[in-house]
Amino acid sequence: MSSELFAALKTGRLIGSRCKNCGRTHFPPARRCARCGGEMQLEEIPKRGVVLTFSEVYVSSPAFTPPYVVAIAQFGDFKVPGMAADKVEIGDEVEWEVADRHGNLWYFFRTVKHY
Amino acid sequence: MVLAYIVAAGMSKIGRREESSREIVAEAFEEVTTVVDPRDIEAVYVGVQSEVYEHQIMYGALVAEALGLLPREAYRVEACAAAGALALHTAVMAVKSGLVDVALAVGVEKMTAKPTEVVTDALMAASDIVDQLSGVTIPAHYAMVARRYMYLYGATEEDLCEVAVKNHKHALDNPKAHFKKAVSVEECLKSKPVATPLKLLDSAPISDGAAVAVVASERAARRYTDAPVKVLASTVATDTLSISQRDDIVWPTAVWEAAQRAYRQAGLAPSHIQVAEVHDAFTINEILMYEALGFAKRGEGYKLVREGQTYIGGKIPVNPSGGLKARGHPIGATGLAQIYELYLQLTGRAGRRNTGAEVAMAVNEGGVNSTAVVHILAI
């Protein structure tokens, strides 16, 4: 159901799914739970999350220009992989933002500044 | 229980090769023709990762043609870097089902003609669309596992490099290895970053190579040898393509699951395994394997390599061939290159690398531990 993710991005939302049976979440959204096979329902992913892990990438495919930072962040019950706009550390607060990438809408992470 | 047996195995020299995959497969196959009459082979299963490298699919028929095995049943199986062991699993199923008496498992990849960026892109096809669109390469996946593992359990970049040091040392005695060059922890720490914290010397190389194994029923095996290698277990398990969707990002559930099933199938426990070839595509993964296979407690795998217990001569020798890291990593061939090493080990043909082991385990995985294939072999 990546198609529903792309549709949600057009309205500035990031969505995943949650299993009606076991409560597990999935990103991108899926029709059935990967673990228990239960039906899933779409759910909006909270805006603010915390970095669980990250890497600075120096070797990539021709579609990307290293170096750049990728991370996995926890947004509520959802774990989401993505590219980060800035350097991050484990535990940093980030928000996802929708942006244009090569003519398509996609999302990336931006560090929340605490002043 | 009906068993399948490995009666012969072969492997090409691994490294940067000028030849095409059909020539490299033929080189590996020559080694088994001293034991098995090619006319006995009834089916061929070929593990290949990608059609990108040689702009080629149809590797089943291609290999049958190259080896003079037309018009046998022959087809490709694929699970990224687990393709080789998957070909063996398929051959074992064909033999155990009784459909054939002798099957050939083949793994091959010819990668080095393409630039690193193209190889990176071809491997990235093993990840979820959201990772692909976000630039999360396969090395970056392992890097994020490594970062989180170090954060949770206190392992260091030095510990990761110790895996590279060990495997390069083992490969010094492997005449077919890609690298026959010792490396130090310092050299590893100073090597160029690939995806932090992983560096060039934490990473398996891009290689060309092929490996084969002949699988036979008990009845057929007797024709070739009095001491065939028994396949005590052959299991496959799966996990999410994106590590982000796992309950625990660092835990290789598919490897653990496939190993648990393999121990049950064989009626054995981790303490019975005397030598192992495991999937060290990146150094962190060998450490995770120690834990998922039950050689170390969860979060303590790095201590095994710190204490030197996985060297040849240690408590549980791991990757005596040099592993993916130093023997080399021609993606589709790797699973059968592992089997080739264990065949040599169990039959006492590994020269200075001989461990004298009688029970061995191979763990081959694809993606980022998204497909795990485990074999337990014994003499």
From TrEMBL, chain A:
This is Nucleic-acid-binding protein containing a Zn-ribbon. Gene3D superfamilies: 6.10.30.10. Residues 6-39 form the ChsH2 rubredoxin-like zinc ribbon domain. Pfam families: zf-ChsH2.
From TrEMBL, chain B:
GO terms for molecular function: acetyl-CoA C-acetyltransferase activity. Keywords: Acyltransferase, Isoprene biosynthesis, Transferase. Its EC number is 2.3.1.16, 2.3.1.9. Transmembrane segments: none annotated. This is Acetyl-CoA acetyltransferase. One of its GO terms (biological process) is isoprenoid biosynthetic process. PANTHER family: ACETYL-COA C-ACETYLTRANSFERASE, ACETYL-COA C-ACYLTRANSFERASE. NCBIfam families: PRK06064.1 (NF004720). It comes from the Archaea. Residues 5-218 form the Thiolase N-terminal domain. It comes from Pyrobaculum oguniense (strain DSM 13380 / JCM 10595 / TE7). Residues 237-378 form the Thiolase C-terminal domain. The keyword Acyltransferase applies.
